[in-house]
Design brief:
single chain, alpha/beta, Rossmann fold, globular
Length: 264
Amino acid sequence: MKQPLLILIVFLIAILIAPNVDASVPVEITELNEIVSERSGNWSTGTSSVFVSDHFSNFDVIQDNADGVHPNREGDNKMAAVWTSSLLSSNLDLSKNYSIMPLGDSITALNYRYDLWMNLNEINLTFDFVGSENRLPWAQESVESEFDINHEGHSGWRSDQISYNIESWTQKNTPDIVLFHIGTNDLAQGYSPLHVIEHIEKTIKILQLYNPEVIIYVAQIIPYDFEDYSEESSVGFHGMEISLMFISFLIIEEIIRKHHFNKN
């Protein structure tokens, strides 16, 4: 009974902090995504291609969002479809076995990996998800499959935390392909889009150092609605609201994972 009670308490905290959802998107997300598009042409080398994957344009901040931050199942499918389209558009060799590293924060740690895994199997791509993390996503279907659980999705992490750790991860699991979605936590915590770009670039350079032929897909990130949550809340914590919301989401994520999924 303790776990359901704790889940209920956390949900009540989140509801008190953020009673309503609005369709407005913080301008910082648009700024970050525009800079990703502008700078991406400088990130490729003669042997390593870096592409932009647009996860923003077709993502509805209300209809595709589960909790203000993370995609619901429709959003997961949209993210998986964008990654799949990006991979297909770069003319991958379908006879090659690719190691693919899903890289980012909790948006990577959750469901889209399952939907992407399904998509890539349908197109007969031979691949192996790699990373130091091995938790199952929330998608119930994955429990009954041979789903590849490895990834580098780290809940609550910012771009600087990723760039500081990417070398050790890459030494253990050097990827052929990286799917990189990062920046949500940075922007929600008040860091600038340029801060995110700086650490995206550091991460890319390290990945290219360990595999000069690595193919990297950098996301124009999905929208979130923290700004509206903060403005409409009757609790006058302002910046603290965002921190409490993140803590609530992370606790919910961990409790549900442990409660609903068997450990591998």
